[in-house]
Amino acid sequence: MLLADMTWPDFDAHTHRGCAIVPIGAVEPHGPHLPLGADTMISDYFARRLAADIDALIAPTIGYGVATPPQRLGGAFPGVIAVSGTTFTHLIADILTALAEHGVRQLVIVNSAIDNLSFLCEAARIVTAAHPQSRIMIVHWWDVVGETFRNALAEETGVARSDDHHAGMVESSLTMHIAPDTTRPDLVDTDPVVAGARRFGYDVFPLPEDAATSSGIVYTAHKASVDIGARVAEQVAREMTAAVRLEFGIDSARR
Length: 255
Known about the structure:
Distance between the termini: 12 Å
Radius of gyration: 19 Å
Oligomer: single chain
CATH superfamily: Creatininase
Helix content: 40-55%
Order of helices and strands: HEHEHHEHEHHHHH
């Protein structure tokens, strides 16, 4: 159900049937062990899983996002290819508007880059104000995975939730499962937890030297594994489908 592979008659025949999914990611460093496009790969993966479950179209992926602050990346590393918040908001709003004007009434954004969030919400407000018959749902994999699941995983591995965010154990495991050929598991042991890089709950520009890391691993990744990634993937796919079915009133028999 890839929109870009369809002819216009095929697309036109499907627009009134249900949802269109727009996968959104980013291009940015995720330590030395994960690819720059990890966020995009994750969004692509879950968009395909979701589309198979609810019989939805998948729009072409938007692989560029808003720049993540260097604190989250562990410093200034090569590979950040971002667009401004204004450009990003207009881009998303234009794409959603086009889909709405073609008759798509249920729009699901699958996003895997946290700094896109506010701009995605702004784009959704713009589009639903102009097209009140449309509904837009913005889903992030880390929000639907579930607190109980994450807490149990933290207890099992001994990796605290506070040590498991960007390029940490869960995201690294997920990428290892989804795109194993793009990962370097042998490089996950460069941990700032051991190196002593300072952490804080706000952003400072430029990043203080004592908050920078040598590798770009801000959190703990050394317990990452393909097995954990497979478990996370199944949990997220199941919960994401359930959430979309709930919000859009999609019958579980529809596939």
